[in-house]
Design a protein that fits this description.
The complex is a heterodimer of chains A (416) and B (276).
Chain A: H1 2-12, H2 18-43, H3 47-55, H4 58-70, H5 78-102, H6 107-131, H7 142-145, H8 153-182, H9 184-189, H10 194-212, H11 221-233, H12 239-263, H13 269-287, H14 293-317, H15 325-333, H16 345-369, H17 394-415
Chain B: H1 8-18, E1 32-41, E2 44-54, E3 59-63, H2 70-78, E4 85-89, H3 95-98, E5 102-105, H4 119-125, H5 128-131, H6 139-151, H7 167-180, E6 185-189, H8 197-212, E7 216-220, H9 227-230, E8 233-238, E9 240-246, H10 247-250, H11 253-260, H12 266-271
Parallel strand pairs in B: 3-7, 3-8, 5-6, 6-7
Antiparallel strand pairs in B: 1-2, 1-4, 8-9
Helix pairs in contact in B: 4-7, 6-7, 7-8
The chains are: A mainly alpha (416), B alpha/beta (276).
């Protein structure tokens, strides 16, 4: 085990030999391209379409093999296989798009049909090829889940070049893809061609699938497209950062996953890359301070404490008994009440402050209701907890206090 | 057709005179001209052969019952849904040639508000055509966006994630995005649906200011009780056009009865401040 860990560290440092380094760099480039391209597929909620596209590559691989053998060439010539896979994936994409548009089938039905039919056809072709004399050791099944074996320098170049193309497309289309993903109707009024934008987005998925065939395989490539942006979403509320982070996570997953599988010879590269991506996703889901579940739980707790503190103080000020155990605990921890529930000096001061704050907010709402407020926008920041001093200027508050004093002075006459 | 012969051809000179407008008498360069618009989902028309014309500087409410084709009329005019037949002219041109002069405010419910964007990012979408697809938004663009947010009272919220806003605030962000386009014709789909009173006042204020600026405003509207306060023209539709014209002439009890059929009680109609 220790030896493998050492190998893994070597592989991370690109010192585990030429081939391992090549696979690690190639997988990292693939992950960057996949994560960046996947960001828009994720935002447009089209993960299933990209899954259909990747499954639709398989018959193209089989047919390209058969065609190349029939022409007397080597059926395993990679560029030929990739061109075949791209063609059949494009056909699958066009069929999904056409079925959803021209028939009354919903898009997910069209996706399900195309995905399974193309994949089934591909498996049939692969089985036939196995029985052909020329297909003995074709090794085409490695396209399903990627190959653990090495990578040629030319393949790494192919991934780098195609990844660069994908990155340029993302850069050039980011604004219109963002518009379409957020609000397609509005995008249409701005002159954005929705259909062309969606097809470009799927072309990105197709590029990534084809260059990822040898590394991750066609079944799992959707994970490399979708998991990195899903993980990135936990960290940011901005599209541009989401793209950059998704590319980073994808690249990390590819790099670490490839290093792991080169150190532990029994581990398959593609699935390990996907699992590493998932680990990044899990870490983001739990640990992100912005949208992670732990942060959300903590925020929820602190909000709950603030609500209980406020309610408890108002109850103290009105001399009401407090029964809620959580409220009592919050007040006691803050030193606002004693063990026996009687307010401390600090507690009485805080209660008076809460009541005053409440009265000022009421006065502000009252002014707005009578259309007397000079600026009713500040009321939008009213949440029942924010002190009015954080929202209004001292002058505005003084004005409210004068109004309160007038109301106070008027009250006995009304009641009497 | 069951409708009387009150086609635009007869009304145009009257309307134009009333609006004090000096555009061509043919009305060919009015902000929005709709002729015979039919939009159909499947084989069921949602809007059937509707004619309408919005004079410059007017503020029109499109009124009708649910499913009457109000939103579809806007979407058909904007080319968001395909037209089965009919013609649209925007300032005398096909929509594609004049789209820079048109701002659309879609229904708030139509988008995913958990989308990773801040308020200012959404407003910057209104500058999409100005910035262009390749360049990045610059300081000037951000200032424009902030100024538009200020007009709807949302400048303090520029850096908030859009999911943190209330419904009324989201509606105002959409309005600010339309303002950023600096258009001449504003088409709004139910801008007052489900918003608070403060938002309604803010939106009405902005729309009135646009009208005072000789811009043209068209709203799909569902609250009959505010029509006379907010708008100067109405377009009543229920699949077909029932009536169109200044509030004082077209917003009548008969027209409402014809639009809504039995769905509107007599009492309700009598409560409204109606013309005639």
């Amino acid at each position: 085990m220790a030896a493998e860990v050492g190998l893994f560290l070597d592989a991370l440092a690109l010192r585990a030999g030429y081939n391992s380094a090549l696979v690690a760099v190639g997988a990292a480039l693939l992950g960057i391209a996949a994560g960046g391209s996947g960001a828009f597929i994720f935002l447009r909620k089209r993960a299933l379409v990209s899954d259909a596209v990747s499954h639709a590559t398989l018959p193209g691989v089989g047919l390209a093999f058969i065609a190349m053998v029939a022409l007397g060439g080597d059926g395993r010539w990679l560029p030929g296989l990739l061109i075949g896979s791209a063609l059949s994936a494009a056909i699958g994409l066009v069929i999904v798009e056409w079925m959803a548009r021209a028939t009354r089938l919903s898009e997910d039905a069209a996706i399900g049909a195309v995905l399974s039919v193309f994949f089934g056809l591909g498996i049939v072709l692969l089985t036939i090829i196995q029985t052909l004399s020329s297909g003995r050791q074709a090794g085409l099944e490695s396209f399903l889940l990627g190959a653990t074996a090495g990578m040629l320098l030319s393949e790494a170049y192919t991934i780098a070049a195609a990844g660069l193309v994908a990155a340029l497309i993302v850069l050039a289309m980011r604004r219109q893809m963002t518009l379409v993903a957020f609000d397609p109707d509005y995008a249409a009024t701005q002159g954005v061609d929705i259909r062309r934008t969606d097809l470009t987005m799927m072309a990105l998925a197709l590029i990534v699938t084809v260059i990822g065939l040898k590394v991750v395989g066609l079944i799992l490539i959707v994970a490399l497209l979708i998991i990195p942006p899903a993980a990135a979403r936990f960290w940011t509320d901005r599209v541009d950062r989401l793209i950059a982070l998704a590319a980073l996570f994808g690249g990390l997953a590819g790099y670490i996953g490839a290093a792991l599988s080169s150190a532990f010879a029994a581990l398959p590269t593609g699935p390990i890359i996907v699992l590493v991506a998932f680990a990044l996703f899990l870490a983001s889901l739990l640990g992100s301070p912005l949208r992670g579940v732990l942060a959300a739980a903590l925020n929820g707790l602190s909000f709950r404490r603030r609500v209980h503190r406020r309610q408890g103080l108002l109850a103290l000020a009105r001399g009401e008994a407090i029964y809620d155990g959580f409220t009592l605990a919050v007040l006691r921890q803050a030193g606002l009440i004693r063990r026996d529930g009687v307010a401390t000096l600090a507690g009485r001061a805080a209660a008076a402050a809460a009541v005053r704050d409440e009265a000022r907010w009421d006065a502000a709402h009252d002014l707005a209701a009578h259309n007397l407020a000079e600026d009713e926008r500040v009321l939008e920041r009213y949440d029942g907890l924010t002190p009015i001093e954080e929202v209004m200027t001292a002058d505005q508050i003084a004005e409210l206090d004068r109004r309160l004093a007038r109301l106070e002075a008027a009250r006995p006459e009304v009641s009497g | 057709m069951a409708l009387p012969l009150d086609g635009p051809g007869l009304q145009e000179p009257v309307l134009i005179a009333r609006a004090g407008d000096l555009v061509g008498l043919g009305g060919s360069d009015s902000p929005l001209l709709v002729r015979g618009l039919t939009v159909s989902y499947g084989r069921k028309p949602a809007v059937f052969s509707v004619d309408a014309e919005m004079p410059a500087g007017s503020m029109t409410a499109i009124i009708g019952p649910n499913g009457a084709g109000k939103s579809t009329l806007l979407k058909g005019a904007l080319g968001i849904v395909p037209r089965l037949s009919g013609e649209i002219r925007v300032f005398g041109q096909p929509f594609a040639a004049a789209r820079h002069r048109v701002a659309y405010v879609p229904q708030r419910a139509g988008v995913d508000w958990d989308f990773p964007a801040r308020v200012i990012d959404v407003v910057l979408m209104g500058l999409y055509r100005e910035i262009g697809p390749l360049r990045f938004a610059g300081r000037r663009h951000r200032q424009t966006a902030l100024a538009c947010l200020e007009r709807v009272g949302m400048a303090d919220f520029a850096m908030r994630q859009i999911g943190q806003l209330s419904g009324g605030q989201q509606q105002r962000v959409f309005l600010a995005r339309a303002l950023a386009q600096n258009a001449d014709l504003y088409l709004l789909d139910e801008p007052f649906a489900g918003v608070d009173a403060a938002t309604e006042r803010a939106i009405v204020g902005v729309l009135q200011a646009l009208k005072d600026d000789r811009k043209t405003v068209v709203c799909v509207h569902h609250d009959l009780s505010t029509v006379t306060d907010y708008f100067d023209r109405v377009l009543l539709i229920n699949l077909r056009k029932v009536a169109e014209g200044p509030v004082g002439e077209a917003f009548t009890a008969e027209a409402l009865q014809a639009t809504y059929g039995g769905r509107l009680s007599r009492d309700h109609i009598e409560d409204l401040a109606l013309a005639g």
